Amino acid sequence: MAKPNYKFAKRQKELAKKKKKEEKLKRKQMKGQDDFEPDQDAEATGNDGVES
Q: Residue 9 and residue 23: Cα distance in Å, rounded?
């Protein structure tokens, strides 16, 4: 019977964790860029984008 390679399994787990963390960070950054629209901000304040 073959001996389990724990180092390989640990490395694969670490790589998967790192990839997931990077994807999460990327999604966070994209959300911050894409969700900001001036029209939505004006609607929230009731200003309708008209300056007095």
A: 21
Contact 43, 50 (CB under 8 A): no
Q: CA dihedral in degrees (35, 36, 38, 43; nearest 10)? A: 60
CA pair distance 17, 10, nearest whole angstrom: 11
Q: What is the pLDDT of residues 1-52, one digit of tens each?
A: 889 999 999 999 999 999 999 999 999 998 888 765 555 555 555 566 555 5
Q: Encode 3-52 in three state secondary structure.
A: CCCHHHHHHHHHHHHHHHHHHHHHHHHHHHHHCCCHHHHHHHHCCCCCCC
Two structure tokens written together for 21: 């963390």
